[in-house]
Every structure is written in C-alpha cells, then in structure tokens.
Amino acid sequence: FSVFTLSFQLSFSAVFGIITLGKIISVYLERYLPAFLRYSLSTALGAQLAVAPILLYRFGVFYFIGFAASMLTVPVITLFIWSGILFILLPAGVARLALHSFSCVLGAFYNSVNYINRKLSEIPGIVVKTGKGYIISLIVIVILGTILLLPRKYIYSKGETV
C-alpha cells in the first residue's frame, strides 16, 4: 500500500526524474555549462519536473521557486551530510571533544537552509495555482513523455554506449 502514499510517489518520482530527466537535461547543457554546474542544475531540474504533475494533481499548486531553492540549498545540505558523516567516523574521545564544534557547524548549515527557504518563499508570484491541476498535469506529462521518447541520438552524449 506504500505505492499509494504521497511520500512514496514524490520520492520515487524525484529519483526517477534525477536518473532519467536529469541525464537528458545534462546532455543538452553539455555545451553551455561546466560539469559541476551542469550536474547540479540538471539534477534539480529533473527532480522538479518529475514531481510537478503529482504536486499539481494533489495540491493544485506548483512552486517555481522550488528549483531555485534546491540550487541554493543542495550544496549546503551536501556539506551538512558530509559533516555529519565525518563526525560519526571520529573516534569516541575525539568526537566528545569536537561535539560542540560540530554542533555549531551543523546548526549553521541547518539555519542557512531554513533562512534561504524562508526568504525565497516570501517572493510574490512564485506559485502556479489551478483548481486541481488536471490540465497542467496533463501538459507536464505530455512534455515529460516527449522528452523521454526522444531518439537516442539526442539523449546520449558522444562516446557513450547504450
């Protein structure tokens, strides 16, 4: 029954978007952006496009600012996660000595993500609202379907085998 829960649908769709749409978008951006920007941008955009139909259908709204928020917060969240992993890997004695420092660092990362999201949510006109989002959901699904059905020569970068 988990398949019918919103959290499963959003998580599955986001991962699907990252794996499929993110790859396609990355290929299109290959000429224009360096790899570190291209991968972040294509991953965030792929996830946002994949969850858009579900958000529109379930809530009747879509927040365009989610894309910008993810571009700004993903690097901070990445640092947050790696700092936590580093702390876990420290020997017990060192971890006790470093507990306050790590707590401050992790708290700063957490507060910056909250601050970024709060400020971005205050921007007027960042929401697309529809009744239940049926029409926009259909349009988004058609666009995603079209992208996924593009011929392979447009999807895969040079030198890559299928």
Q: What do these coordinates show?
A:
The protein is mainly alpha-helical. It is 76% helix and 4% strand. It has helices spanning 6-29, 35-59, 65-89, 92-121, 134-148, 152-155, and strands at residues 61-63, 127-129. The protein has a two-stranded antiparallel ribbon. It is globular and about 60 Å long.
**Individual helix count:** 6
Mean pLDDT: 79
Number of strands: 2
Poorly predicted runs:
none
Helix content: over 70%
Termini separation (Å)? 34 Å
Largest beta-sheet characterization: 2 strands, antiparallel
Q: Pairing-aware structural class of the strands and helices?
A: mainly alpha
**Computed CA radius of gyration, to the nearest angstrom:** 19 Å
Globular, elongated, flat, extended or rod-shaped: what is the shape? globular
**What percent of residues are in strands?**
under 5%
- Give me the side-by-side strand order of the main sheet: 1-2
The H-and-E topology, N to C, reads as: HHEHHEHH
Concise description?
This protein is mainly alpha-helical. The protein is 76% helix and 4% strand.
Per-chain topology:
Elements lengths: L5 H24 L5 H25 L1 E3 L1 H25 L2 H30 L5 E3 L4 H15 L3 H4 L7
Antiparallel strand pairs: 1-2
Helix pairs in contact: 1-2, 2-3, 2-5, 3-4
Structural descriptors:
single chain, mainly alpha, 76% helix, two-stranded antiparallel ribbon
